[in-house]
Design a protein that fits this description.
six-stranded antiparallel β-sheet; alpha+beta; disordered N terminus; three-stranded antiparallel β-sheet; globular
Amino acid sequence: MDRLFSRSIFDDRNGLIRRVVNRVAIRFGKVHIWFKDKSRQIRSLPGNDDLIRAVFSAEKAPVEGSRYRLGERINVYHADGESRRFKICGIQSGGFSNVYIVIDLDEMKPYCLKENRAIPGDEHKKNSKLKVEALISLRLGLHPNLVTTYAAFFIKNRLFLLTEYVPATSLDLKLKADGPLSIESALKYAVHICRGLSYAEAALPGFIHGDIKPGNCLLASEGRIKLCDFGLASAFGIGKTSLQEKSPGIQKIIETHRNSGWGGTSPYMAPEMFDRNNPDRQRADIYAFGVTLFEMLCGMRPSVSSSKSGLIEMHRRKGPLLDLLDGKNIPPPIVDLILRCLSKLPDERPESFASIEVELKQVLENEFEISIPLESAHEMSEAALARVAMSFAVLGRSDQGAACIDSFILQQGKSAELLACKAITLTFGASINEAYEASTAALMMRADLFIVLLAHARVLIARDDLDTAANYLHRALRLRPENGVALNLLGGLFLRSQHYNDAGICFDRSLTLDDSQAEPWEALANINFLTGRREKAMRLAEKAASLDPHRADSHRILGDGYLAKEQIVDAIMCYKTLLRVDPFTKETTRRYVRACCELYKASGRNADLQLIRILILSSRLRQEADGPETDTAEFAKKFSAVLKSYDFDPLLIFFMDSTFVKKVEHLEDGLFEKFSSDVQTVWRRSAERVMPIHVLFALGRTFYEIGSYDDCRSVFQQGLDRFGPNEIAYYYLAACSEIRKDFHKALEYYRKASQLGDREDIRTGIQRVTANVRHSQKLSAVR
């Protein structure tokens, strides 16, 4: 008997492209799925249960902090010319991240995409933490008891991890639904957890998971545990290489990540982890494992309290509730093992998960005559290894990527594809001579492969041999004429050599393949700007910036265009953005300083050397996301002096407002209070004036950054009263209301902002606040 389900879950927003699941027919265990597509039609996928589970998860509504919506498509382009198309069919939210359940539309295989949640915070810092997780999880490879990470890549300057899709429930949900496990099942699952962790400890010396709990243990369909979520993991095995010596930022991130206190989930945290200043993580995982094993056997945790402070006290001072183990016929060696794992003193706990696994297996064999076959890590395929190597390169560890390829070649032998991948990987780390050797060797083996020709072209571009590189790109495009990566590279070469017509043809062809790429839009904007078509150039640059706000040339073109049209305020706004996304250059600073001076002169005042110096200093601070705190402090002192000498002119706040974004926290208390007082003085002296909207809003943004939310609300409310509805004003009013936990008012303002503009921060704000409103309503209903 047939069961037919009709669903439309692959709708693209705006209705531009639609893929519709017309029918899912389940007949005697076989599943047939029909997709409508412009270029191809996938007729059926018999027996693909994982895909069906992933598709049906689309019934979940979007959660708070997700940047993408159900049904959206994400296109990813890799440096080796490969592209992947993912369709979002489910969204899950964690404490600091979102996980999108996606389907690879070419492989027709489900995966998970992990990103940082869209909550207020420094994107650079959030990317840095996710980068540590990527560096660790990629090194762990394919182990049956660990969720696999296949790749890492950036989209719009945000880091994403592509991980294994596990069609399973978590151990936490199983315990809540069914209660405690049988002793045999609990011990088998405990062995699986130990195997995953002992493998990780062997692969990465000093490995610490940091958040072991039933919620991070997935019950895979084959009856094994897969440990997931390495967001708090750390390891010494990442190592310090010559690249890190040149770029110490990565090692600083790793060490900061290792030593951060209060990591994990409090009911599973070892007593020493509640020391904020000096947490000892070395055997904290073993304590968390002991709590997890206890919960599997009893259905509840060994330490229970109604308050967090009470829970901390139980972890530190009181022993586990052993009476919960009574009457369950738990073998005494297991009770003893749990007690040792839950010892208050780290040195009294077992030394490693390998030793715990031995004890568990002995009990299973002696008491239950059960032996668990040993499963080792699987070998990666050549294609999978190439993707991992490219991921290391994207993360700034091209040496590690090249080392992975060399190790594989040593065991399996050379291939042209791997050598080409190694060449591309090394170009990321500026190891151009080694990259040239690898690409030349690949070319000698197989000169008829697209990836080999593309890799050699990339290396030649890095060596500034542009004519020869163009020749190899032409050869590559003869093999794959519809490859957007190669077309963009060739267009870039034509653009550098001022062959604008040929460049335009390449970028136009690339856009016919995918018009959501920011790179060709920006390149076409450059071409039009260089050929004197300024208005068209600005329209194209706006399109590129809307697709990717981190395209530096787009902001430069817009700034130069506005400056030429004497729209100086708009030009300054573009140059401020350019200073944040573009590496420091004197030309960028000159543009910004010149525009600020022109605006100051237009207001009837003269800019002296003191103002010019502070403008130059502010431009440097904007670009140094990880700059020394002393620079920020020095700038704060000088800026206060300039403010005073310029009679607290509010226009200076407009020039400098973005300088302090995400840097205010680095100021010492005295300097912070002085800066806050100066801003308050500017506001008091200017309150009766009719300030231009750009100055008023700059003042409001500054109040927001220094945490003066009442003043921020006053400023933006005044902006609404004077200038009418404005999405920026509504957004900041909503953000202040959200911080004050007035969620209904925040939702009202966010919705008003969304009616005026479709911005990501507004959409995610609505999601966050809506979730809080619903939570409040549930609590009220319970009461």
